Structure formats: C-alpha cells, structure tokens
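REVIEWER CHECKLIST
Item 1: Sequence provided? yes
Item 2: Single chain? yes
Item 3: Sequence as submitted:
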Amino acid sequence: MQKNSRPDPGPSQEHAHIFKEIIRTLVSVVEHKDPFFNGHSERVATQCVLFSRHLSMSRDLIDAIYLASLLYDIGMVYVPLEIIHKPGELSPAEMALIKEHPKIAEQILSNLTNLKNILPIIRHHHEAYAGNGYPDGLKGEAIPVCARILSIVDSFDAMTSERPHRGMLSEDDALVEIRKNAGTMFDPRLVEEFVRFVGLRKESPVERPADQHNETPSHVENHIQKAVRDIVEAFNRGHIEMPVFPGIIQKIRQTTSSANVAIDDLAKVIEQDPVVTLRLITASNSVHYGGAGQIKTVRQAIARMGINDTKDIASSIAMKSVYTSGDANVRSLMEKLWQHSIATAYMAHTIALKLRSSDAEMLFLLGLTHDIGKVLLLHSIITIFSKRDKNQPIDIEEILSGVQPVHATFGAALLRRWGFAENLIKAVAVHEKPDIDSQTPQIVLILFLANMFTRRIGCSLFTDLSPDAGVASMLLGLEASQIVEIMEEAKQRITETISSV
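Item 4: Structure as written out by the authors:
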C-alpha cells in the first residue's frame, strides 16, 4: 500500500458520516428559507442541551433533544415567507397553515430510522401546557418533556433575536414574558428552572456542548455575541457592504498557472495595482533578495525574485489590504492575523507539495483567505463599539472570544459571495474543527493541519494543538519526519515573506 493511500471506511464509520451529512443538509434547507433561521436551530439546540444538563437528564434524552432542536423547524420550508414575515395578526387560513409545520416536519423525517425517537419531540413542540396548543391539543405531562423544554428555549431565542417585524427583547424582558405564560403555554416547573438556569449562566462561564474547552464568559455572549449575530444577519440580508476580493490575486494565479508564463505577462498583471507594484519592488530590494535598492521596475523584481516567489509575495501583499485598521490597538492584532494567514498559506502549500497534490496553488489561496471571516467581523464589531462610546476602551480579548465560534462559517459565506468553488468554501467553513474520518476531503485535512501547524511555529494567536491533528496526519500518510521537514521548509518561506513585505 502506498503511504498516502487511505483505508476504506468500515460500515459504522460510513453510516455515521452519511447520517451527519443528512443532518447538515436538512438544517441547511431550513436556513436557506430565510436569514432569520441562520444559526437559530444551532443556538436553540445548544441551549436545550445546556438546560437539559442543568436538569440532570439522561444522556439519551439530551442526545434526542439536541437532534430534535436542530430539525424541528424543517416543516417551515412549506410556509410562504409572506406569512412568516407578516407583522400583523394572521388570518385563520394562515394560522392553519402555520399549525401544519410540526406534522410536516414529522412526515419529512419519518423515513429516517435513526430519527424515529425524536419525532414526538418535533411533532409536539408547539403544544401548550394548558391544552390549547397544536397539532394535537396535548395537555400537561402528556406533552413529552423534551418538547416542553424545546418550547421554552425556542420562544426565548426568538424573543431575544431580531425579527423583520419587531426588535429583539433583552434576556430579562424575555424571561418576564416566559413567566407570564407559565401554566398556560409552558410547564411552570420548567419555567422556574429555566429562569434559574439563565441566572446561573450569567454568573458563571457558559459551557459549549460541542467545544467545552473553548468556554466563553456569559457577559461576552450577551454583549458581544449579540453584536456578532446582528452583523451576520445584516450580512445575510445584504445590508452590509463587504469588501471585494482582491482581483489581482486571481489574475496572478491564473497567469502563473501556465508552464510557459513569461515575465512580461506577469509584470503586466501586477502593474495594474500600484500598491502591489510599489511594495513588490521594495520587497525585491530587501536584504533577503540582495538589497542595495537596485530594482526599479516590476520586471526587474520578477527576474530577481523568480516567478514563484513573486506570485506568492504579490498575493500576500494584495491580501494585506484587508488587514488594515485605523485603531492603533487593533492594528497590532491585524498584523498578527495577516502573518497567520501567510503562515497558513505556506504551510498548506508545503504540505500539498509534500503529498504531490495538484491542489497546492489552490491551498495557498485558501490559507490566505481562511480567516477572512474573523478579520471582517472584528472590523465591524470594533467600529460599532467605537461609535457607541469613544471613551470606553475596547477589550480586544472579549471581542475575539465572541468572534471565534462563528468566524469560520461567516468566512465561508463571504467566499461564496466572492464566487469561490463549493469544495473550497466547505474547507474554510470547517477549518477549525472538521469531522475527521477516512471520507474527509484531502483539502479539508490539509487546511486544518496547516492551521494547526502554525501554532507549533508561533504564527498563531493560539498555542494548543488539537488531538485531531495526529489523526489528520495519519489519514494523509504523513510521517513524523515529514512533518518536521514541512514545518522547516514552510517556516523559512514564511520568515522570508514577512521580513520582505
């Protein structure tokens, strides 16, 4: 067997992978219905799990409520948007259509054997404790306990989120509304526990079910996370103008894709951008390339640096325009993030070359752009907070903690706007914590490893190395000696580029 070949998945691995893909697909169907649903089910699922743990429920019930909370709104895809967004009271016919969505969801999911146990939760999540809910008018304890929990958490998240026809409530105001409906809409005992649970969450760190080591203080979630959510929702609605991807990067990569690329062809592309032109000439006169300030033109710079170095350095220079800030405190952070993007690009490129992958150039570009969601979210949030109170110092660490959990998916959404291919978008979306098994695409494994390896050479904001890095290395067929070589080769290129630009 060749070193880089990958073992066939066993039946259980394959079935688990397929099941996860089905869940992701179903959730994406709901999220594509309307921007409000983006992240809604994941937030509800997360809080249902945490609340269920607070109640000391069994592992089986917690697993069931998590899956049900991800999928309970699937029936809403059959409800017209004009009804979902209607600001006034619904007509009897419109209300009747709304009341069908739990049954529709149950019907959609009923053919999936692995989801049989969550169907009652989904069907009955709109039942009312007093018996006047839908679709079956169940009352009190006859309503499955997981459905009663989901009902409370769903309502709480909806009230504390921005909607097209109304603003969001504060958590305290939302809890007042929840309490008003105890005994009628909601189980009164669960309501009191939920109020206690939210209070405890404010006083102590929040445990994230899928990533317990990356805990976020509750005041950050209440303050920063809501700002992040607002920005993401505004982006989804097209209300935020995002920067255009530096087109010169694509032109450079396309021009150099030919084996017979001429220096003049590459020079003509680079000269279209005055900033890249000036900085490239400066880089070519750096100590690494001989210094002395003898280079005056792009053609001379390319001849001295070589086409490959020129291509990578010019792309890095162009991408740096996104990593700028007028705030001195933020400027230092942006510089670190830019250096991390360069490090990830070279690391991914070096891994791909070591594996003799044909995707090396594409992976360099992915490395440059993988953290773009973090950069743009940081820009937006810092701008918002600076305008709110110019005398209040900005806590960069708090903002980073709020941005970290969502930056990958936000970056993927931005790459989709920029017209990147779907396989590249997916790699960016999961680059922090992909599901790693024998079916994971090679580019996903390489980008994940590149991001992890930058932590080993001091080119990241983080230092901990995920245990999954070892699994990814094994699946790619990389031995320890090869990993050392990759890091040394990449580190040299990273240092040269950062010191030159």
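Item 5: Key structural point noted by reviewer: The domain at 227-238+324-501 is CATH 1.10.3210.10 (Hypothetical protein af1432).
Item 6: Recommendation: ____
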